[in-house]
Amino acid sequence: MGGDSRGSGPVALSVRREEREVPAPYGDGVLLTFAMTSGYDAVPDGERERLLRYLEAVVAARPAPVHTAVAFNAVYFGYDLGSDGYGGSPLSLDDFPVITFGESAPALPVGAMVCVATGSDPLYAEIVYKEGAHPEVGALGDVPPWVSGAPAGAEGPGRPGSDPAPLRRELLVPDPHAFGPALSLSPAQLHRLRTRRRWINGDGHVVVDVCYPSREAARRDDLTAYADHLLTTARAQLLSPYVPVSLAELVGSTNDDDLRAGLLGILDTVRGVLNSSDTLRTWGHYAITRASLADCWRDTGPLGGDDFRSLAAAVEHAATPTKRRYGLTAPVTVYTAVGPRLRGFPRAAELLKGVGYAAAVCQANVTLADVVQRNSDQGLFENGARVSLDDAFEGGGVWRSHHPGDAEPPGDPLGPAGCGWMSTTTVPPVPEPEPEAEVEPVDLPLADDATLGPSELLSSDGNDILWRLPLRLAHLIDSRLPLHPQAVRELRDAHDRPPTVRLELDHPGGTLEATAAVQDVTAELGDEEGWLTGIVWPGDLFPGLMLELSLPRGGAVIRMTTTRLDEHIQVGDRVVGHSFDPCVLTREDVPGSGRHGDSAVGLSPRELVMRTVRRCGLLTLDGHALLDRSGLPYAAYERIPARAQTVALESAVSELLAERLLEPALGSRDVWGQPHFPARDGESAIPLIGYRPARRRVIRPWGGTESGGEGWHAIQFVPGHLRRLLPGCSPSEAQRAAFREYCRRLGKADGWELPEGYTFVTAHTRGH
């Protein structure tokens, strides 16, 4: 489960939304659009609203919390809000992976559609929830410290295990009714399977030993893991021409990189839409309705408001120490897993069967989060205990209670910290700084001008001096630009005193204010060095942008131009449409930098990690930066950081690696301690973390790339898609032929006929 909670309270009721018709995936209009492949921020409000109305209806209709991956399934594979679920969509059941209770299985993320092996009829289901099922978690939720936050394959306190393909026991909650009555087992059949406990356990869940292909794969976040599953195990299902709108059609390609980028963009859109809803609450990637949460709190029966208040009180007071003589107390730390703890409530067993378990765990975590946010100061309660989420996955979520809480530095109490595992790992002792001397990130120096982004003379003839150089962060901050030595000599020889130079700037495709297009600047000239000072830089110029400058012989006018790229690319958080120096962009366009200053103070751990890797890593010619992972904390703080700061950085690194914003690499270190990449023979291997700078940006066929721009409203390109027909209707021969051609574009060489009850709408534009 995730470690965040939206909203101000568990019983908050939303304002009733105006009743409108809920769209459907196979309905008259498409729910997934080209804009959604670029992520939530790129989607126009109208398209967001249409998708939101459908997803809110899905969350309200399904009995389990709806994970982002499950919400994607609903809109992509066509979940019917009536009783049919996915049963009315032409999915191929033969494509589903088979899992067997109690055995080893490949990693299956939430959202995977599976076939559970039974002794008779197959059980088709959608995995709607999963959690760690570590055997050492007690029946009442008591957790050994080393289990909380432990990596997959960990063998004990301080023993992470050496198997490169680690095993982890997981509990999967399948929804056996997701495919409608026609493909669901009867209540009697499900009861028989639960009683025998050979294919599912007594609660209707599947417990398997999951074998991950690598330790990196085990650390991936839910959405990256699900994207990997769809692009590999479920690829045939993903690229089926029978889905409402094909991903390949949306991205205009069947290339893996394009499919992955588009898929992650749609998943980001779905998550953003769920988080934006006024009628939903989210816990991590799981969404529930506020109405169901309010009903739960009002319920006085088992797993109702009384039980959840009791759970919150138990976690709050779990670490209350036993007083010793003379008033002395001993520090106490207790770890409590939510899932097993819920099973200890009277008469709760029946409510925790099937998908009811997922609902109860999600409601319990939201309740605990609300209590922590409302009744504590960043997790520190009046009784002196500090309560925080320590592990978001194991046992339905492990909460840490520690006393005295004021002895620990404050932090985000809902961010999984893994303190249990960190406290038991065998690492060299790290001296803690004095509490009153909080370590601040240092401002790392920029690369030396002599080695990064030098000025390059392009030509020098009888008419002009032409040179180019990348714009530097210092140039933006100081409102100046260095002159090439040839230009310095020309200006000095042609003028008796330092001239006022007219600077004319041409920035095609960019924003250029009148005050910046033509301006008078001062030329400060030395023997070989010179500067243009007092420059008013346009607002959309950035460090690394390549500038070409020309100075006519004997003149005092310098023309400066930028070069527009054929297509936009994404570099970090920036979309770049002009020629740039990748090394300067990597080094200087980092979190905390800007034309008004350059500081690491106040950055989040994620931002600090990205800043440090880009500033301190070994640079390649194309702008990649590689940093020795073990040296990250010292590079970030330039001294031994506090343990909590080290933990926060490591957690951020894991997130960035899982999201592929950073990449793992292997280098080596020589006898003098110098790291190298690639690894050299005879040197000790070391893990590196790498920053990959640029990736291709998806360009929408109707033009505009900015949300809210005029291009969004002027014309919209609608992809080819399936639409369900009314009873008694049939598609025309032209539509059948169009569907066969559509299948050819998707690379499907068989199964070219439209499924019964559907027609095909060809790609078209709408609007003016």
Question: Would you mind describing this structure in some detail?
Answer:
With 768 residues, the protein is an alpha+beta fold. Among the domains are: 311-424, no CATH class; 456-566, DNA-binding pseudobarrel domain (At1g16640 B3 domain); 600-696; 715-767, no CATH class. The protein is built from 22 helices and 34 strands. The strands form 9 sheets. Strands 13-14-19-20-16-17-18-15 form an 8-stranded mixed beta sheet. β11 (386-391) and β12 (398-403) form a beta hairpin. The longest helix is centred in the middle third of the chain and has 21 residues, at 256-276. The protein is globular and about 100 Å long. The two termini are 45 Å apart. The model is unreliable at 6-18, 324-328, 426-440, 442-450 and 696-715 (pLDDT under 50).
Summary tags:
single chain; 768 residues; alpha+beta; At1g16640 B3 domain; eight-stranded mixed beta sheet; six-stranded mixed beta sheet
